[in-house]
Amino acid sequence: MQTKPLLLLGLALVGLGACSPFTSPQAGRSLYAQNCVACHGTDARGGAQMPDLTLIAARAGGVYPQTRVLDKLDGYARGQTAYDGVEMPNFGDLLTGRLDRVDLPGGRSRLLPEKIIALEAYLRSIQRPAP
Ligand code: HEC
Q1: Cα–Cα distance, 40 to 79 (Å, whole number)
Q2: HSE-CB of 125 using CA atoms within 13 angstroms
Q3: Which atom of ligand 1 sits closest to the CA of residue 81?
Q4: What's the Cα-to-Cα distance from 12 to each of 69, 101, 118, rounded to whole Å?
Q5: pLDDT at residue 9 above 80?
Q6: What confidence category does residue 81 fall into, taking pLDDT thresholds of 50, 70 and 90?
């Protein structure tokens, strides 16, 4: 039977995907510094009319809404979470570049630009409990 080597290869590829330097929280951190600090702040804690991005999970009742954050970043959820009528711009240039697969809760996955995956991984890494 040839299934075992194939299975091992598959697992190795999944492992590589998870470790990509292009989709890591560190990569997301520098993308954040380039694109997001102007509004959400260097510490991501927001300000007047700008949501605190370290409290996304806390605002969602303690369960980090990964799919919703990905939707927001890739533009699907544009304007859906407007705070006081202020909207976040759509980051079209983040949509360029290589695609990678991101694992979602429930065993699903989605193909998205690496930069969006990295930004989401960074945001997930900086969540804190409700103050
Ligand atoms: C011009 C200001 C501005 C910039 C730049 C900006 N944002 Fe936002 N962002 C907002 C505003 C205003 C909101 C709230 C309204 C909305 O959701 O559209 C928001 C909402 C969000 C949300 C949803 C928060 C929630 O609780 O659901 C996420 C996630 C987010 N921004 C991430 C980012 C990331 C990552 C970047 C950089 C790529 C970025 N933002 C750049 C203004 C900005």
Answers
A1: 16
A2: 15
A3: 17
A4: 28, 14, 20
A5: no
A6: low
